[in-house]
Write a structure and sequence with these properties.
mainly alpha; Ferritin; 9 helices; 2 strands
Length: about 280
Amino acid sequence: MTLLELSVLGGPWAKRLDKRRRMWTTFPWHDLGAQASPIAKNAARVVWTRSAFSEIASAAAFAEIAAQLLAASAPIDLVAASGEFVVDEVLHAELSAHVANAFGGAVALDVDMTRLVRPPVSERPLMRAAELIVRTSCVGEALTVPVLKAAQKASRSSLIGAVTGQIVKDESAHAQIGAWFLDWADSQLSDADRVHLGNVAGRALVAFAPMLRGECTQSSDLGILDCASFDPLFARAVRKRVAAPLALRGIEIPQTDLQAIGLDVSRSNPPVELTA
């Protein structure tokens, strides 16, 4: 374990990111939510520090996805998009760190940088890519987008609104690539493959649920949702943005996993149109 630390080498390598960073100078860094309590600001430091690490982990996931897509001879535009998403996530990590610093500094966070991505267990490159994409895009990113949108709306800080708005803009594409990949791979997936991917999605939900729910507080502010608002939002997101799109593609999440995160499995999934 080591403390999370972000650094920049500089030179031509840092300049490659300058165009993307330039818009950050227009963000209202002076507006830190003057009405927010010290408790809320300390909570924001924790949440945005964790967010920085989460974005680094997502960058590692998309890097691995790009490698597996290449091995699977996937369409080059999907490969290129996955590579671009690595840059998105690294910049999100830097942006999250800046927000944490604006509220008083990042908190100490012990992390294991050698275990950022859970390795896929399948042997076929296509299925290895599928496991990673289902876990990362179809579950993780699909849940992150509605949570961030709600947090943006609830926050009284224009800085948080600008930052979350930028992240949501990128993360929406990160979630959509899952459907595009699964539709492309459809003819190459067996019934057994789909069952396996359903289990992968279920385990990912069980892993993500406490992480996301642990970031809610008693009152919404500074990019953090209150727990009373989070629970129904999370349930809707799981049904509409995760379970239903996967089911349309023949991938069913085990009911035991849905029950494990507190979802009422007696309710049917809402109809969802194909996004690809």
